Amino acid sequence: MKKKKILVIEDDNLFREVLSELLSLEGYEVIQAADGEEGWEKLKEIPDVVLLDRVMPKMDGIELLKKIREDPYYSAIPVVLLTGISEEESQLEGLALGADDYLVKTLNTEILLAKIKILIKHKDIRLNINPLTGLPGNILIQQEIETRVLKDTPFILFYIDMNNFKAYNDYYGFAKGDKIIKHTAEILTEVIKNFGEKDDFVGHIGGDDFVIISSSKDYKKIAEKIIEKYDSTIKSFYDEKDIEKGFIKVTDRDGELKEFPIMGISIVAIPSWKIKVLSFEELSKRSAELKKYAKQFNKSIFVEERRA
Questions:
Q1: Which of 34, 141, 48, 54 lies closest to 94, judged by CA?
Q2: 130: helix, strand or coil
Q3: Given 18, 138, 204, 225, which residue has the most CB atoms within 10 angstroms?
Q4: In this model, does residue 274 exceed pLDDT 70?
């Protein structure tokens, strides 16, 4: 496993070396910087956490923190502000500017290490959450499936996507397309909340593709409720003239003007015990095959794996 990186930006050489040695012994890759300007340059190595001294020459910690939070390339990196005992105002200023936490320099090493672990965990989770829907993304989806496979826990994988979404997006624009994606995410989470189990999982692969991992025995009802809610609400995202026609006209990938009906939703269900799931890759491949089959019908449909 690749080591997590900690960037220590501290002008006190002795304190910086002691801190770096401690972190190295804990298995972290440590990058050092002796002032704010050097720290800014070392950010190019994309650390998992920054330990940032408040008072430094050339560029102080507050100024550097502000630059980090204003830069979209670095803004997600957790920053812990290192302050003196009497620097309460600096601590508050740092937190207001986006520091994730602060520690006084007479630090308790156990607290420091615990905070670093928590910040790295939260960062990893945050970077794997779809920003549009707030649902877990690909890495967390894979982890969830692999955990259930390893535990040999029976589950049903639902692979869900919308029919003719690209045509809708091209015709009405991405802003309206985003509204439909968010609406679909809300439908899935609501149905699972009302008809699923406590440990069920809803994820967003990207675009109009979603997954649900469920342990419910009544999984067909989950699919029925999703289709029911989707079909009863999707027309509200269309103009009245298009609803009356029942289609929109959009130029396809081949440059031909074609009619695309009102969107439906395709749901593929694979019970793990029917294909004796051995890996995430195997499950992903089979769900893609079933999805291709389901899309042929060009309407809301539920398709279940039939192999035993």
A1: 54
A2: coil
A3: 204
A4: yes
Are the beta carbons of 112 and 103 closer than 8 angstroms? yes
* Lookup result for tokens 């109009």: 208
Give residue limits of the domains in the chain: 5-126, 138-304
CA-nearest of 26, 30, 71 to 48 is 30
Predicted TM-score of the model (pTM): 0.66
Indicate if the pLDDT at residue 89 is higher than 60. no
Residue 121 CB coordination number (10 Å) = 10
Block residue for tokens 């793990």: 272
Tell me the DSSP string of 186-200. HHHHHHHHHHS-TT-
Give the CATH superfamily of 138-304. Answer: Reverse transcriptase/Diguanylate cyclase domain (3.30.70.270)
CA distance 307 to 294: 16
Structure tokens at 146: 């692999």
Q: What is the pLDDT of residues 105-147, one digit of tens each?
A: 776 788 888 888 888 888 777 778 888 888 888 888 888 888 8
Q: 5-126, superfamily in CATH?
A: Response regulator (3.40.50.2300)
From residue 230, how far is each of 26, 205, 242 by CA, in Å? 50, 19, 18
Do 138-304 and 5-126 fall under one CATH topology? no
- Max CA-CA distance within the chain? 75
